[in-house]
Structures are given as structure tokens and as C-alpha cells.
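Late entry, FHN complex.
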Amino acid sequence: MNKQISYRLLLAVGLSLLGKPVQATEPATATNSNTGLPPVASVDSYGLTNQQKQEHEAGLQWFRDAKFGVFIHFGLYSVPAGEWQGNKGYAEWFQIETRMPGADYAKFAQQFNPTNFNAKEWVKNIKNAGIKYMVITTKHHDGFAMYDTKLEDYNVVQSTPWAHDPLKDLADACKDSGVQLCFYYSLPDWHSADFPPALSQRKFHGNPNPNADLEKYVTYMKGQVHEILTQYGPIGALWFDDGGAFEGLDGAQRAKLIHAKEIIDEVHELQPQCVIDDRLGIPADYATPEGRIPAGHPSKLFEACMSLNDHWGYNKNDHNWKSPKTITQDIATCASKGGNFILGIGAVADGTFPPTEATPILDVVGQWLSVNGESIYGTTASPFKTQLPWGWVTQKEGKLYLHVFAWPQDNQLLVPIQNEVRQAYLLVDPNHTALIVTPSDHGATISLPAQTPDPMDTVIVLQINDPSNVVTVNPNLAEGKPVEVSKMVQPRRRNANVTVK
Ligand code: FHN
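Prediction complete; structure with ligand written out below:
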């Protein structure tokens, strides 16, 4: 490749990244080298009263059990729907990427009239997809409040012809629905004149003010957090987002600047059950790996977030949807690692959610979960701290759930455990017809049907003796150390889909 061509290639790659959403900005706190995740806090470190502690632990348990959420970005950026002056790559970062001054961006508020918004429909669609909680943007980086704030006119009730608070409707629709309402809140703010441009992403601000007063902004932010925690009933989780702002500061420095500890204390005071993500700069309840599933087997609570196409906010030209297979496998993989999976989908400016193209994908995911949900919700991490040649494992109440992504060509599935297997059956089989299990030194080999019933993820239920003590054939499997696959697979029965040594 000559120099000119390689430069062009680099330029093309660089330019294509410019229009892309920031998918991989994670908190600036020290990370664990194995999983790449920052630390989470122990409940005891919060200084809660006994009552608050109990409620917080119940909230954590709800979050752990939920496993699958949806991450909804809905705001003024939904109006241009990702397209502006010939560029089709925008979404919720519209304002910063077009470098649009606040007065111009604010004009989108006059066009924001989502008359098709129907909170009950949203919740019904979310529920049908097997999703247990929704995290919705109360205020994204553009600073526009998508709720009825009394602290700023720049909000959906006072600045749009719609003059309506969607969070109020969503809170009502979520009540007793089985879908838990959770809120996203952006720490940086491109609208508030008190948020210093120097701390903003790319130093951008829609209303730059040399006299910005961060202390005043923090007071404002705390006021808004107080509002969202007192106006909409119980909130499952608060998803604070630094969004890649505060460049050059480490987590502790950011936390100090924004009074993170006081914000966390306020949340505990008002809603002790509410869990908090890790982006305030100091450890809280769960880590938020973005655009990726953490490596290894984290021993901490996490929620991997990924968008269903290539944008968080709605982009009418983005048709690069992930398949139901990718989504179901991501959910199962996260569950196997003891974490949650949250799927990002932008709401359409007319109020439609999900966008029409996302509906069939969610339908298939929902159908899979309606049959296989037992192997996801309320499960704990796999006893094997690594991926097995054919897939991943979750467990609950004496059962191992084998998520088979790669069906063995010889139909023999080796599970490297020494525990006695009492029963094995396909979760999809309502009769629980017993599968033949042959124990050996290598583990338990299950004879499977010739064809996979579900190429996305077929779940096999294994009822075992002494489930609280799963004994793996190779101790490295339990410790997450590298394992030579050939030691687990019987030589004559190798799974041709995996590479064995
Ligand atoms: O900058 C934001 C982005 O727009 C989006 O909201 C994601 C969702 O996790 N968070 C930030 C990037 O980390």
C-alpha cells in the first residue's frame, strides 16, 4: 500500500468516526485489569441506617435479578433525527457535532410535538420484549429537561408546543406493569450558563459563559436530582453520565468538583432502594461498560450497555440493526458473568417507541425470553469462570442453564462437572423429556437432538446434586484461568465448531 492510499484510508476511518456517537466513554476511575471495570462500592461504605441499608439491598437484588433493560434517549435531538445539512451521522450529540449555538438548537423545541406518544404503548412494547426496566433520559448533555422541572424553563413542558411531561405518563404506565422506571441524568450540560465550557466535551458549550460558576451548577444539578426523585414515585436506578466530559480529571477529582458524595447521600435519603451507576467519579453500585461486555468474569455488579443500531438517539438513516440472535446471546453472556444487559434504542420525535424497524427484532427477543426467561431472570453467574466451547452457563435454584450457541456436530455436549446430574432437558420442551446423560472423567456428556431447536441460543436445563458446590473437572474452570479445551473434550467427540488444541 503506498503512503497516499494508506493516508486516505486513515482519513476515511478518522472521518467516519467523527460523526459517530461516543460509544466507549467510561468513567475515569481506576480499573481492574482483568475485567477492565472500575470498582463498585460495598453497601457498608455508604453509612446508611439499618432501614436504608435493607431497602438498598432489596434494590440491589431487584437490579441483579432484572438482567435486561432498555436505554431510551429521547430529546430535542430526536427532531433532526440524525440528519443536518447533508450529514446523516448525528444523534444525541447533534448539538456538539454541528457546533450549534444554544439559541439555534433551542428552536428544535418549537418543533418538538410527539403527538403519537403513548406511555402505555411504550411500556406494553417494552414488556413484550421481555425487558424488566427502562432507563430514560431526563436530561442529556444538551441540557434540555425532558420533564417538568421548576428550575429551568428549557424543558419539555414550558418550551414545546406539546407542553407535556412524558415522565409523568411513563411513571403511571410503569406502575404495576413489571417494568421498573429508571432515570438517566447528564452531568455535563451544554445549556446551563453555569457549566464551565472548559469541563465540557471538546470544550463545547451552547451558551459559553466566562463567568460560569460550577458551584451554582452543582446546586442546580442537585435540585434537579431532587425533583426527579420526588416527582415520579420509586425509581429503580439512577444512571448519571459523565459522557466523556471532565477531561484530564480523574474520578476522585471529578467527584469532588460535583459533590458526588452529597448527591449519592441525597439519593439514599430520598429513595434508599435506588441503585446508582459508577459515573459520578466515586464507586457506587454498578459498573457501566459501554459498547462491550466486560472481559473475564467480574465479581462485581455491572450493566453492559449497547445500542440496537449505531446510535443512542434516533437516527432515521441508521438501519444497521443488530440481530435478535446477537441481542439474546449478549443477554445470556452478561447473565453468565453476573451482570445485566441494557439495550439502547432512540425514541422517534413523533413519540413512537420503539421505532418501527426495531419492533420485529424486539418481538423475536421477547419470544425467546418468554420461553427461556427462566434461564435469565433471577439467575446468578456461571460456576465456570470462562466461556465453554459451546456457550455460557447461568444458574438458579439447583439448576444449571446451559446456553448453547454452537451446537456440537456430533450432538454430544460435554459439561465439565463432576456433580451427579439428576435430570437434563431442553427448556423449550414443555414435557421436559429427559436427555441421556453419560458421566465420565471428563464430565457429563449430554446426548442432544440432531438439530438445534433454536439457533439463537438453545437452553438445556441440568438439575444437579449438591448445586451449591459445583465441582468442575478442571479447577482452572472455576478460577477463570486459561483452560486447554482438549482437556475437557473427549477426543472422539470433539465439537467441530470450536478450535481444540
Ligand atoms: O455521551 C453519552 C452518549 O450520548 C450516550 O448517552 C451514552 C450512553 O451510555 N453515554 C455517553 C457516552 O458515554
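The longest strand covers residues 133-139. Will revisit in the morning.
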